[in-house]
Design brief:
The protein is of the alpha/beta class and 230 residues long. It is built from 6 helices and 7 strands, in the order H-E-H-E-H-E-E-H-E-H-E-H-E. Strand 4, helix 4 and strand 5 form a beta-alpha-beta unit. The longest helix is centred in the middle third of the chain and has 14 residues. It binds S-adenosylmethionine. The site of S-adenosylmethionine has 23 residues, from helix 2 and strand 2.
Length: 230
């Protein structure tokens, strides 16, 4: 798979906001390959800098609504939307608040999914690593993934689809099983192995100790899951 979406020219960087990375780009590429977006109503959950929502708009969706819990991200994504000259309705709030906004044809999300040690076991990260709330997701990485997979069908119209990116370290099969348990057809449609970045590198020993990676492994697999509501 080609990862062909650079950040748009002039895209704003903010040290309190997750900057688009391999997972963001894999999700955008999967959106493009799926052909799901043009003319459809899109919801981007956990929008961060707005990178995925802006890409959906540039792919010709009917409209995009985006949610993020972080006020820095909301400010940054609104600024990036203005710079890109597109129309995205950015809202501040948890992804679950989208449940009050009706249903959508397509839901896309790059949520926090990084397995996170308890405070005592935490490794110190470089201050340049970015905001911890963008990736920390509890000991198994599923703090957001579990409730999101369990309730996303309520956010979708009949015939609607989810595209979700996560690390396999947070349990690909568990996401597939949870989505299927709600009546959706779910499968992995894209994947990519990448070297550990600064966050996983700092946690490598803990990940080994809890059995999430084999000793010496310093790579993770990113996957994009597509789930279709009948
Ligand atoms: C991994 S970043 C992804 C950002 C962007 N979608 C991208 O792909 O570049 C995750 C984002 O989720 C946001 N977030 C964390 N918990 C959230 C929640 N419960 N509801 C909505 N957004 C949340 C964080 O503020 C962060 O901006």
């Amino acid at each position: 798979m080609t990862i062909a979406y650079p950040a748009p020219a002039g895209f704003l960087a903010d040290s309190n906001v997750y900057q688009p990375q391999d997972d963001s780009r894999l999700l955008v590429e999967a959106m493009r390959c799926s052909g799901l977006v043009p003319q459809r109503r899109v919801l981007d959950l956990c929008t961060g800098s707005g990178f995925v929502a802006i890409a959906a708009s540039e792919m010709g969706c009917a409209d995009v609504t985006a949610f993020d819990i972080c006020s820095h991200a909301v400010r940054c994504s609104r600024a990036n939307v203005a710079i890109a000259g597109v129309d995205v309705d950015v809202r501040k709030g948890s992804w679950s608040e989208a449940l009050d906004h009706g249903t959508f044809d397509v839901v896309v999300s790059n949520p926090p999914y990084v397995p996170t040690p308890a405070e005592g076991d935490a490794q110190v990260l470089s201050p340049n690593a970015g905001p911890s709330w963008a990736w920390n997701a509890g000991p198994d990485g599923r703090l957001v993934l579990d409730p999101l997979c369990a309730s996303v069908s309520k956010l979708l119209c009949d015939g609607g689809s989810l595209l979700l990116v996560q690390s396999a370290l947070a349990g690909t099969q568990r996401s597939l099983d949870t989505l299927r348990s709600t009546g959706m057809d779910a499968e992995v449609v894209a994947s990519r192995w990448i070297p550990f970045g600064p966050v996983l590198s700092a946690r490598a020993e803990w990940l080994e100790n809890v059995g999430l990676v084999q000793r010496g492994c310093r790579e993770e697999e990113l996957v994009v899951i597509r789930a279709d509501k009948p």
